[in-house]
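ligand=guanosine-5'-diphosphate
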Amino acid sequence: MDRTLIVLVMPKSIQFIKSAVLAKDYPVHNMAEVAIAGRSNAGKSSFINTLSKNKIAKVSATPGKTRLLNFFNMEDSYVLTDMPGYGFAARSGDELREWQRMIETYLSVRENLRGLILVMDIRRSWTEDEEIMKRFSEREGFPLAVVLSKADKLSHSQKLQAIAKIKKATGLSAVFATSALKKDGGEEVERYIFENWIKE
Ligand code: GDP
């Protein structure tokens, strides 16, 4: 059985490794890394939990951890880096600069990083906030996949329209509709990541 299949059929277990801001504090490991970002309330924690039986992403919602990079070991097959929520309207100049420095440092120095997942509510439009993450990924040469969350809020045809709209706005082909509520779509995203970013 190839590794992708083994990973997908195994019981899920995700472990929190550590939090960090500075590069010197990032965990040392030799796995591939995937970063995940989204404005707050996008459904990022819920989505991460669809990848897991344990409610691990709650870690990132505890006070003090929301402005840090949180690293998770995904069953020893890759490391997921939960990046703090963005949304510039709610941030002051200093906060914004700190956040930007942390993300830019991470993206530019992390050698085992393979790609970036952007989580956004399927009912929202692509905005400047999402565009900034796209620019980061392009500048550093990482592929970007978009996870549209809360797909249960739309009918099937609205969902297809939303996917088409984001694909058109971004020029990206990796756009997935998911629902944490219905535990839907997480496997498809993981399969894509394994096939395109992680598998040698
Ligand atoms: P985060 O701030 O991006 O980590 O977002 P959360 O995962 O905490 O979700 C924000 C809100 O959206 C919460 O009230 C969730 O219950 C809700 N939510 C998240 N995912 C889904 C989903 O798939 N369907 C529905 N209906 N609500 C969701």
